[in-house]
Amino acid sequence: MDERKHTMANVNAVVALGGGPSPVINASLLGAVKRCFDYSGRIGKVYAAKHGIEGVLREELIDMNAQDPAELERLIHTPGSGAVGTCRYKLGDGCEEDFSRILDVFAAHDVGYFFYIGGNDSMDTADKVSNLAHKRGYDLVVAGIPKTIDNDLGDEAFTIIDHTPGYASTARYWANIIQIANEENRGMRVSEPVAVLQAMGRKAGYITAAARLADPNREMPLQLYFAESGHNLDSMTELVHTELRRSGRCIVVVNEGFDVGSLGEARDGFGHVEYGASQTTAAQVVVNHLNRSKLPVRGNATGQVPGILQRSTSIFRSKVDIQEAYEVGAYAVDMAMNSGTGYMATILRAPGATYRAVYDMVSLRTVANSERHLPKSWIAPNGIDVTDDFLRYAEPLLGDGWPDLPLENGLQRFARLKTETIAKRLDTYVPFQHR
Question: How far is CA 154 from the centre of its chain?
C-alpha cells in the first residue's frame, strides 16, 4: 500500500460487526455511529462495512450519514445482524495480503477510525490492524467494542470485562423459556417425563447456568450440564434416573459443548465447531442415550434445540443489556478520540450492593483471544447446578419490564437501512480465505 499519512481532522470512520450476532449488537452499532456523528468536526463520513471485515476486504461500505434518521433509531429495537451484515472470516497467519488490503481500502476512503464490534477473534483482528497501521506509518485509530452471548471474553476474575453485551438478553431468554418448559413438563410428565434443552456455549457454561435464573429457589427438577462440569453420559443418566424416582420428571439443560463424543462436527470460518451445522447435536445424543437407558418411569425423553433463537429473539431482550450495549458503543468512540489506538471499551461493575455498570478501556492485546470459563466456585458440588454467587452476579443483568418493540400490522418493525454501497476506488479483490 501507499504508506502515507492523512491529517486526523475530518477523516472518515468505519464500523464493522464480527462473528455471530446478538440480541443487542445493533444497539452498539447505533451507539458508535451516533457518537461519531457528535464528532463532526473530526469525523467526516461514517461507514458501516457490509458483512463485517469481508465488506472491508471487498470495499463494500455503507454510508451511514445517508440513512433515514428514523431507520437508524430503529436499530435499538432490532436484533441480529441483518441491518448491515456480519461474517465469520478468520484473519490469521498467512493472511498478510488481507491485512494490507484493509489498509489499502481505508487509505482509498480516507478512513482514520475503525470500530470493530465482536468477540475475541474480532479483537485479535483489530489489534493486528492497529499494529500494522502503526508499523506502516498510517494514522489509524482502531477501537474494539465487545460482543458475545457466550460471556466467555476476558478472565475468570472479571477484571478485563464483567460481562459482554448480548449475554444478559440471552440469559433472560433462557430464564423465560425454562419457566415455559417447566409448565410443559409438568403437564406432559406421564408421557414425556424428561425435557432436554440445548444451550449455546462451546466451552463455557454461562448460558446453561442462566437457566437457573428461572428458578432461584430451586423448586424445579432442573439439572444443568456445563461444558466444565466433568460429567458424562453415564453420570448424567444416573442423576436423571435419581430425579425421576424422586419427582417423576426432570428438565435437563445441556451445553452444546458438553462432551457426548463425536457429533460429526462442522466448523465455521474461525475454525470453531459450528454446532448448528454438525451431523447431530448434544441434545439429540442425550435424548437417545436416556431413552435407551430404560427410564424408571413411563414415557420418553424429548429434546429441543433453540439454536439461533436465543441470540436473536427480540421480546426477551434485557433493557439493561440494550442500554449498556448502546453506551459501550458510544464510549468506544470517546475512548478512541481521547486515548488513541489499540483499546477495547469494556464494562465493569461498580463496587457495592447495588448493581451499576462503569465503562473503562483495556488493551486489545490483553483481550485478544482471551477465553474464560464458568468459575469452578460458581458450580455446585454436584456439578449440575450453580451457586448463589452466580445468581447474585447474573440477576441484576436481567432488568425489569419488557423492551420497547414497535409493531406494524401486528409484526415487529425492524430497521431497514439503505445497504447500497458507495463507489469503489480500488480493483476487485477476493479475500484470501475464499480463493
Answer: 13
Catalytic residue (one of 98, 121, 150, 162): 150
Using DSSP's 3-state secondary structure scheme, residue 108 falls into helix
Catalytic annotation present for 404? no
Phi-psi domain of 296 (left: phi exceeds 0; alpha: psi -120 through 50; beta: other): alpha
Structure-block grid coordinates of residue 251: 428438565
Q: Give SS3 for 130.
A: helix
CA distance linking residue 435 with residue 391, whole number of Å: 47
pTM of structure? 0.94
Residue 61 CA, chain-centre distance (Å), reads: 23
In the structure grid, which three cell numbers stand for residue 319, read together? 433493557
State the burial class of residue 179 (Cβ atoms within 10 Å of its Cβ: 0-12, 13-18, 19+).
middle
CA dist 147 and 100 (Å) reads 26
C-alpha cell at 77: 429495537
Contacts 24+ apart (CB under 8 A), 45-49: 45/12, 45/13, 45/109, 46/12, 46/13, 46/15, 47/12, 47/13, 47/14, 47/15, 47/109, 47/111, 47/422, 48/14, 48/15, 48/16, 48/84, 49/14, 49/15, 49/16, 49/17, 49/84
**How do strand 111-118 and strand 411-412 relate by DSSP bridges?**
unpaired
Span 411-430, average pLDDT? 97
Give the span between the Cα atoms of 210 and 34, in whole angstroms.
32
- From the list 112, 82, 76, 107, the residue with the least C-alpha distance to 330 is 76
Condensed to tens digits (0 to 9), the pLDDT of residues 204-230 reads 999 999 999 999 999 999 999 998 988
Cα angle 121, 123, 126 (rounded to 5 degrees) comes to 115
